[in-house]
Design goal:
- 2 copies of one chain form a homodimer.
- The first copy, chain A, is of the alpha/beta class.
- The first copy, chain A, has 12 helices and 12 strands.
- In chain A, strand 1 (8-14) and strand 2 form a beta hairpin.
- Chains A and B meet through helix 8 of A and helix 8 of B.
């Protein structure tokens, strides 16, 4: 294994709480990985050092040297300026407007392609997962916030040179609840995991959600996806109703995106969806179909993501390869799919 | 002029009330034109005959024969299925799901490219007008309805193979006024010319808008853009407030589009905007900037369309040329701009 003739691509998922490095071979088979906490309050200098170390550990686990790396793809939170590879005020990281690309290029001496983590995840699903053969795929990932991404005709959709698809900040309820972005009534403020958790905490406190109360108490930080799914399995109607209402709002926002961008595939992902894929897919489909223009009712399908935590690392690595080699996305996809199956 | 060595492209604007054919030479200079009423209640057979005759008249005016035509571009209302060249239930025409492309190809023996009229208008502005050099241009045209279109990286954005950017049907006011599409609170229902006219008719009836009352009475069908602009020039505050409120709502919907698609240029067009460009550009800019995510505040500009009635004919002809010759849009654009200036 430890031969430098091997070509590798690094996929990196830089999250607010964890960072994850995967080393892939030419067929996009994972050959080494490392996971660490992000320490999101670290200064940029310390944070970027952790990124470097995490890649070095993953290389070591894979038994390959840094020389094998053809390109590094790194998926990061928040808006990205694609021209410079700079993060533009990521909401969940203390590192403001820093240049990830420059530093990693210096250390590893290879091309570094910075992408938005949700875009990377959707690109991963486009290459290897739930959005294969899509002409226009939209991904929506309800979590602490609600992220969105788009792959259009084999490319990450980037508008005016920066990542977009900020579906979490589409206003669905004028004068609705306050959102972290400063506006009111954003989708995120009514349907994120945090919004759901706050409702669940109230229900638990009122004694309407015994499973939640038993396993998570009334603390919004403790409302894990699996606990919520368990409460619904136990027949706690209030819990199901809270989650369905959130999914209904997500469907409303998605209907707006469909009227604007006419995707053929809408991917739902993240921990909540993974724990309750049927509930989310059905409720979002129903809510969106009810609201799109008649011409679009039969033009899209809503599906659950397939790659879980691997979507961002796979997608950022595949995107880095596409961006540096100009590989036709379709060819890359076929090769990669063949390798995965 | 009457030489068959001349190559021409036909641009056709098929509207709900008028149809317009322009014949262009290789530098996209207009060499013949014809304008007729659409008679939107005609059956498809009669309607398509009028389209054919209108093109034949324009050719005659230009002194060129049908043999000179390299391609016909036709901009049509409503969603278009680009794969088949079929109109999908156009709301303002009696011709449902008919195949425009097939018939015109039979008659003229040349390629026919069907596009959505707003897309064609935005493509026209991208090639020759207010959106030159844009990476991602969104066009919003408040009229009887509110149309939208997008040119992304030199191509009409088409999602899952059909026209989209239906910004008129993005919901801005849950449980708001009834929209023609069957939903409630769509942008069109609160900010179209019809929505504005209904408000103006009430104001005129109440005696708050003397210019409107004098020139248009209280009939919503009589509220022409120039009359509205004149009332505002005459200092009728209620009229200005009604128009500004509509522009504010348009800005709200555009903010959502910016958060999703990050356009660098937002073009406003149509009769209302032409009559009051400053009011619309300023109010929409203000309203959108207030609501977009911080990362996008300085990434876009709102501009008034420059080509007026020629946008759709120019754009549909240029798009037909691009689609049939695979002309690099940028090259075509430069050539065309040089010809126009």
């Amino acid at each position: 294994m430890a031969t430098d003739a091997l070509k590798t691509w690094v996929g990196f998922d830089l999250g607010g709480t964890k960072m994850l490095a995967h080393i892939y071979d030419e067929q996009f088979r994972p050959i080494g990985r490392e996971r660490r906490k992000t320490r999101s309050n670290d200064a940029f200098e310390d944070g970027i050092d952790r990124v470097v170390e995490t890649i070095q550990m993953a290389l070591q686990h894979g038994g390959v040297s840094a020389k094998s790396i053809q390109a590094i793809g790194i998926g990061c939170p928040g808006p990205i300026d694609f021209d410079t590879g700079t993060l533009v005020s990521p909401p969940n990281l203390a590192w403001k407007s820093f240049n990830v690309r420059e530093r990693l290029q210096e250390v590893f001496g290879c091309p570094v392609i910075v992408s938005n983590d949700v875009d990377a995840g959707v690109y991963g699903e486009y290459c290897f997962g739930a959005a294969r053969n899509s002409r226009c795929a939209i991904g929506v990932f309800p979590g602490t916030g609600i992220g969105g991404g788009c792959v259009y005709r084999g490319e990450i959709f980037a508008g005016a040179g920066r990542s977009c698809l900020e579906i979490g900040h589409v206003q669905v309820m004028p004068n609705g609840p306050q959102c972290g972005c400063g506006q009111r009534g954003c989708l995120e403020a009514v349907a994120s995991r945090l919004a759901i958790s706050a409702q669940l905490a109230k229900a638990a406190f009122r004694g309407e959600a015994p499973t939640i109360l038993k396993l998570a108490g009334t603390d919004v930080a403790e409302m894990r996806s699996k606990i919520i799914a368990e409460a619904i399995d136990n027949g706690e109607a209030v819990v199901e109703s809270i989650v369905r209402e959130a999914a209904r709002w997500i469907g409303i926002a998605i209907a707006g995106v469909i009227n604007l961008m006419a995707p053929d595939t809408v991917i739902l992902g993240g921990g909540l969806v993974e724990a309750m894929p049927k509930l989310f897919v059905n409720q979002v489909t129903k809510s969106a179909k009810k609201r799109v223009m008649p011409a679009y009712v039969d033009t899209f399908q809503v599906v659950a993501a397939e790659l879980g935590d691997d979507a961002v690392t796979l997608g950022s690595a595949a995107w880095a390869r596409h961006a540096t080699e100009g590989t036709e996305p379709r060819a890359l996809r076929r090769e990669a799919v063949a390798a995965v199956n």
